[in-house]
Amino acid sequence: MTPRQVVDAHGVRLRPFRAGDVADVVAGCADPVTQRFLPNLPTPYTETDARWWIESGAPAAWTGGGAAYAVADPATDRLLGGIGLNNPVPDRGQAEIGYWVVPAARGRGVAGAATRALSEHAFATGTVRLELLTEPENGPSQRVALAAGFRYEGVRRAASPSRDGGRQDLLTWIRLADDPPGPTARMLPDLPGGVLTDQVVALRRLAPDDAELMYRLHSRPEVVANQAPPVPPERAAVERRCRLAESGWLTGEIARLLITDAASGEPVGSCGLSYTDVASAEASLGYALLPEWRGRGYATRAVRLLAGWAFGPVGIARLIAGTVPENTASHRVLERVGFQREALQRARLPGLAGTRLDDLTFALLPAELR
């Protein structure tokens, strides 16, 4: 590729940076969200930094075999963001794609359009494999990757320096030249309208603000007793779990949901769905309720809603739920939804001090959902 090329595609224009872009580059790169997820940017980001990028940084990217494009509005040529290719490996036909968008242009599909445009241009000019790396907490960027046809490949541990001097993981998303066009199909699609409800109970995706509630719920002795191993969670682990709830959903690892009262919006508990065998379309679900909401049918309704979503939009063919044999209240909930006792797996789960716990497994098929 050459820096003189201009790419017009998908409603955006990729062109070289210009001196007149300084103010917009500052607006984009000084923004707190951009600063959070691009830790290599100077802080504070000033006009001097923007001019250096336009006059020296971007040209150096081209000289090094990569690319550095301004993303502009085709109608006005106003800068909307930046996108480029870096860390090229010519022998492998590989490069890494990265982008940022000015705050005023977010939510308009600019990043996705620019990523599709540059990906297609890169493939047309000889690139075979593109990598897109995101921080685990950067859900919007992960959605861009999926919308642009990238597939989740795994975790690159401690791959990036953080502003506090430590290291952080990066999620790796890959698109190959011969991958089909269009968005990548997700293993765990979004909830329709963002919520599942039967007008009594409502389920929505767990969010960072739910951390205190989740810590209170999952620290209760009766909830801990039904976990394996039965060890109370650390607050930091619960907070991280809530911050990564969207990422777990987008990567297909697990769908974590908050159960609420549909009328009042008050939190009732939590539930989750995760694949146990992708090839056979089998998944497992679990749930926990706050004590003041137990015995009122909320658990049964939540499990029924979650199972219906799993058998419908997710495409699961078989659901299982593991319980400790003594948890008879949970057994009744599962049986009311249609689950059947299937197996007692002896000493399957870790207990305390080297002990092992039995696992009583229930299973549900689509036709059995009540």
UniProtKB/TrEMBL annotation:
CDD domains: NAT_SF. The keyword Transferase applies. GO terms for molecular function: protein N-terminal-serine acetyltransferase activity; protein-N-terminal-alanine acetyltransferase activity. Residues 12-177, 201-367 form the N-acetyltransferase domain. It comes from the Bacteria. InterPro entries: Acyl_CoA_acyltransferase, GNAT_dom, Ribosomal_N-acetyltransferase. PROSITE patterns: GNAT. One of its GO terms (cellular component) is cytoplasm. Pfam families: Acetyltransf_3. Keywords: Transferase. This is GNAT family N-acetyltransferase.
